[in-house]
TrEMBL record:
Top-level taxon: Bacteria
Family in the record: Belongs to the polysaccharide synthase family.
Main location class: membrane
Name under which the protein is recorded: Lipopolysaccharide biosynthesis protein
Keyword Transmembrane: yes
Compartment(s): Cell membrane
Keywords: Cell membrane, Membrane, Transmembrane, Transmembrane helix
Membrane topology, as annotated: Multi-pass membrane protein
Species whose genome carries this gene: Jatrophihabitans cynanchi
PANTHER family (alphabetical): LIPOPOLYSACCHARIDE BIOSYNTHESIS PROTEIN WZXC, PST FAMILY PREDICTED COLANIC ACID TRANSPORTER
Transmembrane annotation, as ranges: 81-100, 106-129, 150-172, 178-197, 291-315, 321-346, 358-376, 382-400, 412-434, 440-458
Length: 503
């Protein structure tokens, strides 16, 4: 019998390595496309997706998370969920197409209309894909998910670069999104062993809607927090400044999504299975937070310190306006990285409703803080973004602990210690190193090298930091066996799979 801890470690190892590949692909595409396209090209697509992508959240309706989190799920329930997601996706596609004139009116430019129509039908494809991907995640088939992500990412990037090279302009970015959605859906269907049958009225999926409704509300509010800044900048300043902001924001999201999204696929099923074992659950939470503390927080701190040479090297001197925006956003990225743990806590214990209540109060405040920076342009909005996420990290972790009945004091202590000892000093040293020399490559290399040297020195002098670093290396690179869960939580076969009820 394979222990759940070992499966989690193996899944984390597979997922991390796949994300390293995806990170390289995305960073390469950012670099190449920035030299083939203009800020206007990126900005005009960002105008559209900032509004229409809300349909992507509605299309899911929280049902993918509900399927993964459920302790039991039979074939008939999964089939009904498939048809519901497909139906919602179709409705979203129609709504998006009919809303094209409204998007044109909001921004005052007709160029966005055809882009809305070109992307609208993808919501149908995503609706079809929802439960196939949820089944792969629920069955802990991390290798299949990694193959899908890498293949789809590589194919979409190749399509975008090819279109940009022949002068397609912003249609290259549209083509990238279309290719990504299609390849992801096809790959998930091929790799998933499950196939839907005919919908059955006698089988109720009401319990999934109760859970999914809370997730949907939470995600909608979260989406507003993450995208109203784009809409505000687009309306206030136009596609050019929004293009700069969107490049900085995407550079922020590359490491964030490459770590948080796949780790959610690993951590959420594992935490959901040990949710009734308080001691094991708390131990796994501390282990899971290490990733955000030691990887994301440090990466964003160092990236903020070397933002000027980093942006110049990746995008070229014509994109220099991105550097101060990215530096401000990266500081907030530190708290977005370590704050993911509260999201996992809510969903793994089935407390999506409690998370929604928090979002209803906290997220509007965050939006106000972000928009308050609009008079100072994209940089002001980015500063508001970081202030908002810092405050939200504190409130959300405290509230999550109360909601799921778990002490968050160890998590706060772990995070604060890491920030003060590891991340903030590493970022400051990277900034000083980048200021010492003027050539861009040398400035970037020196800043990063000095920060890495500091991290190595701390890990050598501090036993707790050395132990944590060794744990990270062994789990995520050598796939070390994590502390085992109790036997009742372990899957019943070497190939990780959830026991499925069949009619």
């Amino acid at each position: 019998m394979v222990g759940l801890g070992k499966i989690a470690a193996r899944g984390a190892g597979i997922t991390l390595m796949s994300q390293v590949i995806r990170f390289a692909l995305q960073l390469g595409s950012l670099t190449v496309l920035a030299r083939l396209l203009s800020p206007h090209d990126f900005g005009v697509v960002a105008m559209v997706t900032a509004i229409t992508n809300v349909m992507e959240i509605v299309r899911d309706f929280g049902l993918s998370s509900a399927a993964v989190q459920a302790k039991r799920l039979n074939d008939a329930e999964r089939t009904n969920l498939f048809w519901v997601n497909t139906g919602i996706g179709t409705a979203c596609a129609v709504a998006a197409a009919l809303g094209a004139p409204l998007v044109v009116r909001i921004y005052g430019t007709s160029v966005v209309g055809p882009i809305v129509l070109a992307l609208a039908w993808l919501f149908i494809v995503s609706g079809i894909n929802t439960q196939f991907r949820a089944e792969l995640s629920r069955s802990l088939r991390f290798k299949a998910l990694a193959v899908t992500d890498i293949a789809a990412q590589a194919g979409s990037i190749a399509a975008a670069i090819s279109l940009a090279a022949v002068g397609a302009g912003y249609w290259a970015i549209v083509g990238q999104q279309i290719t990504l959605v299609l390849l992801t859906c096809i790959s998930n269907i091929v790799l998933c062993n499950w196939r839907p049958g005919r919908p059955r009225r006698s089988v109720s999926i009401r319990r999934f809607f109760r859970f999914g409704g809370g997730v949907l509300g939470t995600q909608l509010i979260g989406y507003a927090t993450n995208n109203l800044d784009n809409v505000a900048i687009g309306v206030h300043s136009g596609s050019g400044p929004l293009g700069l902001y969107s490049r900085a924001y995407q550079l922020l999201m590359v490491p964030l999504t490459q770590v948080n999204d796949p780790m959610t696929r690993v951590v959420l099923p594992v935490l959901s299975r040990v949710q009734d074992d308080g001691e094991t659950y708390a131990r796994y939470l501390r282990k899971a937070q290490l990733l955000g503390c030691y990887v994301l927080a440090s990466v964003f701190a160092v990236a903020a310190g070397v933002s000027v040479p980093l942006v110049t090297l990746l995008f070229g001197p014509q994109w220099s306006g991105v550097a101060p925006i990215f530096a401000a956003l990266a500081i907030g990225g530190i708290f977005r990285g370590i704050g993911q743990i509260s999201y996992w806590m809510y969903l793994s214990r089935g407390r999506a409703g409690a998370q929604l209540k928090l979002y209803l109060i906290a997220r509007p405040v965050m939006i106000v803080i972000m928009i308050a920076g609009l008079p100072w342009g994209p940089v002001g909005v980015a500063v508001g973004h970081s202030i908002g996420f810092f405050l939200y990290w504190i409130v959300s972790l405290w509230a999550a602990g109360r909601a799921v009945g778990t002490s968050t004091r160890p998590l706060f202590v772990q995070a604060i210690r890491t920030l003060l000892v590891i991340s903030v000093p590493a970022g400051a040293i990277a900034y000083l190193g980048a200021m010492l020399v003027s050539p861009v490559p040398a400035s970037l290399v020196l800043g990063v090298a000095l920060s890495v040297g500091y991290l190595a020195l701390v890990s050598r002098l501090s036993p707790p930091e050395r132990a944590n670093l060794h744990f990270m290396i062994e789990v995520f690179l050598r796939r070390r066996r994590m502390p085992e869960a109790t036997a009742q939580h372990a899957p019943a076969a070497p190939e990780p799979a959830v026991v499925v009820e069949r009619d």
